[in-house]
Amino acid sequence: MSPVIRNILAVILGWVGGSAVNMGLIELGYMIFPIQGVDPNDMDSLIAAMPTMEPKHFLFPFLAHAIGTLVGAFLAVWIAATHKMKFGFAIGILFLLGGIAAIYMFPGPTWFAVLDLLVAYLPMAYLGGKLAMRIG
């Protein structure tokens, strides 16, 4: 397979795989820590409930962002033919941009925004990339 095609697939599969993990963990979080009177599929309902949420309600969003990025970067680095870590960081940057957008759409506590932006994206992309490099 052409290195260019393989690198394109690395980004696509890293993004899709990481996003699937992200959404799965978000859904699991809603099942484990339901928010009374909130429809998790209704953005306005979630935004209105933000001030009443406890720290436990932010655990799974953080895990979803961090593990989704880690898995996405891992897949991108594992699949890429060349410049492997660059593709892992590209996934990290894509997810970071999504995280920034989410913070603007869902104005949660400042501590969560800082933790999420500083820990869940680029450090996890680095870790996922390094793990993939070790495996193969």
Structural class estimated from helices and strands? mainly alpha
**N-to-C series of helices and strands:** HHHHHH
Level of helix content? over 70%
DSSP summary: helix tally: 6
Kindly provide the radius of gyration, computed on alpha-carbon positions and rounded to a whole number of angstroms. Answer: 16 Å
Mean pLDDT: 94
What does this structure look like?
The chain is mainly alpha-helical. It has helices at 3-32, 43-49, 59-79, 84-105, 110-119, 122-135. The mean pLDDT is 94.
Q: Keyphrases for this structure?
A:
single chain; 136 residues; mainly alpha; 6 helices
Outline of this structure?
The protein is mainly alpha-helical and 136 residues long. The protein has helices at 3-32, 43-49, 59-79, 84-105, 110-119, 122-135.
Summarize the topology:
Blueprint lengths: L2 H30 L10 H7 L9 H21 L4 H22 L4 H10 L2 H14 L1
